[in-house]
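From the thread on structure requests for the teaching lab: each student submitted one protein with a one-line request. Submission from student K.M.:

"Model Pectate lyase from Aristolochia fimbriata, tokens only."
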Amino acid sequence: MLLITCICLIWLSNACSLEAAYNLTLPHQHPDPEAVVEQVQRSLNHSVSRRRALLGANEEKDSFSSCLTGNPIDDCWRCDPNWQSNRQRLADCGIGFGRNALGGKGGQIYLVTDSSDRDPVNPTPGTLRFAVIQTEPLWIIFSGNMLIRLKQELIVNSFKTIDGRGANVHIAGGGCITLQYVSNVIIHNVHIHHCVPTGNANVRSSPTHWGWRTKSDGDGISIFGASNIWVDHCSLSYCKDGLIDAIMGSTAITISNNYFSHHDEVMLLGHNDNYLPDSGMQVTIIFNHFGQALVQRMPRCRRGYIHVVNNDFTQWEMYAIGGSANPTINSQGNRYTAPSDPNAKEVTKRVDTNEGEWSGWNWRTEGDMLVNGAFFVPSGEGLAVKYAKASSVDPKSSGLIDQLTMNAGVLGGTRDNSMSIAYPGFNNGGSSGGGGSGGEDDGFFGMTFGSGGAGLSPPSFVLSCLTAIILLLFSSSNAMATTR
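Reply posted by the TA:
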């Protein structure tokens, strides 16, 4: 009798736990995702209308009105000629589910002066690793152009901003960025590419803790049980696994203004079909350019609510947006340009699921531009002409895609990583990442920087370069005179 009672109690306990998991609400999950969709559209409508009003005025166009693009994130800070003295204003410019990401707002400015990563357990002051593990909020900037090859994953602590504006910063050729069980992180304006698996090593995650890390996947940015995350204006390519992966109950994420290229499995949202906490995952994907040589997963979703709005998809090899386990996908005002392959025209893919299951999934398309035979297969509420609260807000026309995504990727230089870097031992024209990019070559040395964009190159750096050139010419002239 005692045995039967114990078995019954165990069964009831498991049943209660399972029911609790189904009703789980993540700490930073928004209770009304449609309200966030409306908020994004209002912000976008305001920026576009403001730009039109200023450009349409009879007054002489000033620098402020001409810099507006209608992109509410960029228009929030880029029109300020003194943005460098007020860098933390960026934290007020987020939209979508990750709009509350504070990053290092309110904290000190930390200047990275050393591009090395000699000891992941005892990082050197002045390095990026030393900065990101600190417990206090920090706004991290860079003293100049840098190629940072990380020996191990960069374990970022909460309340950090990695702000690459004003320098050409590449995190490449080694381990890359991990956001694990943290919150309030902003990653802005850095190149992330050729990331490879690292691990089976000790790595420091805070000033007081270091521990053993098993083998990593080789993601560009790994978001693991994290919340209030914003990735903006980065260029990502050629990684061993995903460019950005968000799993294990991560939520409150915005991925905006990025340039993705040369990769197979671009973005994974959700751990696996059976991981119920990912039902609370909420992600906004906005103003990104999905560029050259991409294959699939832009994104690939499991559970959750994914808002894909005003992105430019310039071809894919298999599909653009995929999913399983009944995610909600709200696609608004995107431009989907299909490849020439007649068997790859469909934007959407229900992964390993029969139509009897996915016909009720809420996959919507509204205002999307479908080019070169592309077609989006809606389902569930998406089949209706009107649905939910979002139907009262018109998505911004996909005809504005060129304008809204014109600055996607890293600002102030070429946004395609294959064009801005010299990779000894790498073949950028070869296979994409997420399946073997040859990124483990140890001969990763030189760096050829693209030209800096207007207003984004530090004057001191330009003057330093000119001074160095003059000194070099002067030294060469003296040497030639001596030999004569």
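TA comment: The first strand starts at residue 108 and ends at 112. The CA atoms of residues 188 and 232 lie 5 Å apart.
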